[in-house]
Task: inverse folding
């Protein structure tokens, strides 16, 4: 049940508990949860199918089938329903129903690559070779990728193999398959060794041994490389790229990195399977602050299984900090999907090992499971993904409390195994010719792990503090006689403890960053720790969260008399605005500029802008909590004044301070949006085509300018996503009234 739809769909959050119950084998609870959900959302088809899965697994097959068919007859096209029905039909041993399901889906969504692909695989499960041939070609027409074309060819070969009459195979199926491959050969579209092997197989079955030998000896045979294989000149291209990187890092001449990008883009166009080209491009684009081209590069690496743990950090380190929130979400999913499936799959492997007596494998499977459950990368991605969801949705799509509840985040419980965290990163993934003094050392590895752990601890504590904030907010909105009755005192003690831990961690982190460890360019990337502290983001967030204790105390004391506490809270309100203004001032400057005929990037400005977004979100959540505290206190004050028949009601200074805070926050957000708009106009106005690329051939210049265009496009995308989010935050602040 691991396959889910896009996590940001609200329905996914509603369905998640049912998935969890089914994954854990608690089918009765899954049925109950589905019924509960269907009362509120009767048209949520996937909930019906998930209920049907629960019914099937509890032996109520007839009910399950009836319920499933109710949904199937509606011909759903949402991923959740289709995937759930596929799982159900497999468990019912009715694979033919899956074909009908996807036949309907492609009728309704005829241009969907995914649905056509699922339809092909559904036909494959039931051995419908003719329909597989047709589905493969339909898929190739929509998305002209070689694998789809050769799926169709192979389906013809399977028709030949399964044909009752040999004559039909030799006169129709195999000759047609041969002609289809020959067409691709003539058009020079052969890409993979497997495609050549299939051609060889067809000729062999036709008895055309001379032609088959010519294929082996000709340009398609181990004498010239296929595009999907490494080319002979790849290593020279890579060495040249490394020379450019050395020149860039030693001289600061950004012209060298653009030459490097152009060279690698050209190399990749000629050798599209070269993983080193892709990895180096990925690293360089991230270092330049451009995340947009990176997701496709990482996807094309086709990372397998444990590689999501060993090299996934190259992607996730830069995901959110470069402002591409949608891509960041996707990047986290790459890794999380692997870790979640591992938790399920390794248990199955252990069971199978017992079943078949492969006892020597059991310790290996358990060791693998522990290695991945204790992975530093797993803990980081899980924490960052939850924070990302909060920054994007909390108090916009759902309340902060609802968002955290859906994630099952607990302020009280720390589920990261700090004492047994394992650093599974492959820090030698790049080919490297650096001299010994510039190579990665054991000290670098140790320092990097310390830095990663410190940053993870800050992020984890921030997440748990937000959970504590949500818990306090929930308690404040309840009518209660005594704080002890509702466990609020225990909540504040948890909050105090977490704040103390955060303060200590920030002190340790500040000491760490003072030592200024510099890692080799091809070594581990630095975390966001140093820039988080230098921007003032960590300190401002900590101050906002510290204020929660004062606000909770105010809830007990009330407004009866002006107090030192109220003055203190007012001062913190003002201080937070000043700190936010300082962070914003550090974002000012041009992200991209043309200087001396060279395009220069300033990615640190973008990273600081993201810290501003995160910090203003935390301040907004604190402000929302303050409003919950102040609203009933204001009402109580007004009632008392009326009883005393006072004609004018003078609001306490704290009320005015709160109103000033909300106005200042709106003003800050307006300033930021204006700054972003200015940057968008500036970047769009850059005439990249006018740049003189001296020493470049026309072809080299073309690839270099393509790289520049990608960076320009990425910056614009980042600014757009940041602006969209800040506009939503501004709307939330605007509606904060007491």
Result:
């Amino acid at each position: 049940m691991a396959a889910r739809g896009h996590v940001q769909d609200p329905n996914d959050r509603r369905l998640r508990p049912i998935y969890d119950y089914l994954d854990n084998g608690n089918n009765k609870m899954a049925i109950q949860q589905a019924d509960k959900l269907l009362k509120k959302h009767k048209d949520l088809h996937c909930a019906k199918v998930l209920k049907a899965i629960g019914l099937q697994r509890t032996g109520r097959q007839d009910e399950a089938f009836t319920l499933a068919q109710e949904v199937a007859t509606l011909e759903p096209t949402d991923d959740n329903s289709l995937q759930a029905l596929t799982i159900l039909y497999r468990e019912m041993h009715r694979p033919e129903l899956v074909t009908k399901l996807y036949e309907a889906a492609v009728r309704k969504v005829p241009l969907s690559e995914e649905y056509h692909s699922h339809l092909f695989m559904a036909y494959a499960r039931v051995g419908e070779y003719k329909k597989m041939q047709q589905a493969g070609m339909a898929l190739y027409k929509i998305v002209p990728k070689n694998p789809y074309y050769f799926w169709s060819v192979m389906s013809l070969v399977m028709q030949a193999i399964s044909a009752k009459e040999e004559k039909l195979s030799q006169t129709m199926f195999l000759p047609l398959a041969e002609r289809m491959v020959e067409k691709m050969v003539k058009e020079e579209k052969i890409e993979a060794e497997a495609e050549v092997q299939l051609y060889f197989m067809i000729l062999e079955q036709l008895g055309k041994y001379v032609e088959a030998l010519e294929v082996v000896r000709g340009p398609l045979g181990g004498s010239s490389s296929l595009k999907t294989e490494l080319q002979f000149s790849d290593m020279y291209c890579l060495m040249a790229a490394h020379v450019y990187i050395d020149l860039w890092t030693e001289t600061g001449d950004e012209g060298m990195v653009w030459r490097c990008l152009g060279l690698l883009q050209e190399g990749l166009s000629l050798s599209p399977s070269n993983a080193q080209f892709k990895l180096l491009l990925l690293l360089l684009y991230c270092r330049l602050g451009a995340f947009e081209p990176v997701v496709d590069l990482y996807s094309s690496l086709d990372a397998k299984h444990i590689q999501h743990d060993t090299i996934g950090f190259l992607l996730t380190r830069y995901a959110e900090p470069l402002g591409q929130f949608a891509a960041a979400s996707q990047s986290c999913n790459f890794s999380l999907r692997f870790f979640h499936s591992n938790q399920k799959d390794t248990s199955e492997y252990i069971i199978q090992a017992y079943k078949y007596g492969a006892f020597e494998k059991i310790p290996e499977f358990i060791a693998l499971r522990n290695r991945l459950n204790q992975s530093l990368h797993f803990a980081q991605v899980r924490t960052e993904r939850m924070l990302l969801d909060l920054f994007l949705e909390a108090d916009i799509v759902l309340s902060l409390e609802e968002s955290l509840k859906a994630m099952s985040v607990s302020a009280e419980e720390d589920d990261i195994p700090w004492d047994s965290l394992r650093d599974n990163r492959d820090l030698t993934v790049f080919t490297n010719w650096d001299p010994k003094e510039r190579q990665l050392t054991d000290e670098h590895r140790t320092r990097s792990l310390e830095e990663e752990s410190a940053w993870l601890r800050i992020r984890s504590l921030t997440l748990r503090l937000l959970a504590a904030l949500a818990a306090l907010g929930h308690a404040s909105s309840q009518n209660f006689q005594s704080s002890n009755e509702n466990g609020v005192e225990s909540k504040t003690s948890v909050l105090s403890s977490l704040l103390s831990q955060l303060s200590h961690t920030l002190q340790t982190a500040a000491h760490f960053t003072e030592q200024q460890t510099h890692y080799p360019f091809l070594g581990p990337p630095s975390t966001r720790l140093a820039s988080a502290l230098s921007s003032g983001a960590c300190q401002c967030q900590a101050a906002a969260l510290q204020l929660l204790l004062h606000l909770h105390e105010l809830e007990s004391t009330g407004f009866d008399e002006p107090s030192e506490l109220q003055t203190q809270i007012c001062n913190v309100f003002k201080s937070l605005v000043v700190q936010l203004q300082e962070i914003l001032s550090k974002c000012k400057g041009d992200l991209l500029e043309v200087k001396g005929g060279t395009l220069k990037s300033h990615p640190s400005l973008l990273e600081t802008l993201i810290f501003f977004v995160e910090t203003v979100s935390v301040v907004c959540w604190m402000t929302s909590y303050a409003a919950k505290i102040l609203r009933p206190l204001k009402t109580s004050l007004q009632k008392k004044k009326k009883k005393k028949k006072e004609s004018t009601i003078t609001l306490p200074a704290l009320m005015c301070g709160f109103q000033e805070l909300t106005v200042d926050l709106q003003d800050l957000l307006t300033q930021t949006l204006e700054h972003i708009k200015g940057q968008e106009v500036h970047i769009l106005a850059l005439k990249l085509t006018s740049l003189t690329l001296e020493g470049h051939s026309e072809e080299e210049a073309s690839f270099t300018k393509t790289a520049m265009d990608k960076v320009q496009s990425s910056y614009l995308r980042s600014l757009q996503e940041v602006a969209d989010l800040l506009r939503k935050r501004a709307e939330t602040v605007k509606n904060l009234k007491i």
Confidence is low (pLDDT under 50) at residues 1-7, 479-485. The radius of gyration is 30 Å. The longest helix spans residues 603-643.
